[in-house]
Amino acid sequence: MAPKFSKAEKKIAYDSKLCQLLDDYTQILVVAADNVGSTQLQNIRKGLRGDSVVLMGKNTMMKRSIRIHSEKTGNTAILNLIPLLVGNVGLIFTKGDLKEVSEEVAKYKVGAPARVGLVAPVDVVVPPGNTGLDPSQTSFFQVLNIPTKINKGTVEIITPVELIKKGEKVGSSEAALLAKLGIRPFSYGLVVLSVYDNGSVFSPDVLDLTEDDLIEKFALGVSMVTSLSLAISYPTLAAAPHMFINAYKNVLAVAVETDYSFPLADKVKEYLEDPTKFAVAAVPVAAADSGAAPAAAKEEEKKDEPAEESDDDMGFSLFD
Positions of the region Disordered (predicted)? Predict the structure, then answer.
């Protein structure tokens, strides 16, 4: 027979366990546990066993233990967990990849019926088709304004109907109808609310970012730094190439308008003094691009020209 512990002993044991986990782990997932049953939670523990530990408990106890542990160890970073402990939440301590652990947690969802007074987490749509209910059950459909017809002695729903919208409370009629149809519209499991990693707290959406997303965001940040640097004339590594090019343009403009010159400016001045050099420079390029066309045209002309007839081909003239 397992020994019984008093409430004080249970609190001491819980505090010791939580403090030990805070020492051993630097990555924590804060999860919501609304409508999660004990059997379902046990399956989640088994699925995560190895590199992760699930800890549930009262928020007041967790907050108290975190504060005391922070004072004892001087680790103030863990105090960032306290504002996250709101509602029915739990902690998943892990040493594995945060994305993989969150995906593993999401697998353990079970279907649940629509209970009266429950806030719908998703839209509930009743699909069209035969319900298998006898015609005496049409009153349920009439109350909810669901179009039906009698087909072969059973009630058939004609069109899909949005029965409950996300965020609305489930009414008694909706719950009764869904129960009769055998529809379990909701699914519940642990939902990751926040991620704690070495003192930093961020949204779980960050875990879904790919390398391409990070590169895109980095490039956007670099462009913003470049724009700001150019606007305030403050040199940065990102803006340096643009600043050099702009400076070169300014020096070149001064050289063109004055007698001051330098090798690259001499070439520009030469082009400006004799604009025909632009056309000369363009001829080889145009010739290279269209060189095959004239050759083909000449060949085509040769084919179209009729062959000249010679009077001396056969050794006599036409009238001989």
Answer: 291-320
